[in-house]
Amino acid sequence: MKTLNPSRDVSVSSSLGANADGSQLAVPVSLDRLVSGNSPRFGSLDRDHVSLLAPLTESALPPILVESESFRIIDGHHRVEAARIQGDQTIRVRFFVGTPEAALMEAVRANVRHGKPLT
Question: When you count CB atoms within 10 A of the terminal residue's CB, does the N or C end of the chain come out lower?
Fold first, then answer.
């Protein structure tokens, strides 16, 4: 099993700038550009959870996390579906740069911090 070096294998790209608190800026990205990625969840999207998210404003939800080269969704599948239901054309995105293994680790980490708990 490969051991990840977080300082080398995992980063959120800083090429887009940062907020005053040092966190990466979220940028709007067309929903059409996004590619569904592997999720740490079992099964498909929870339609009830999507229905709870859909009426919320985009600013009320955290930006999704997307792999920077492939535009594969790492974290935020439910938010993307909610945005589509609302008829949105874009969603706020933070970009991730790292290995596929690191992306999966980041997906788990992100889901532990917010959103629908993992099973």
Answer: N
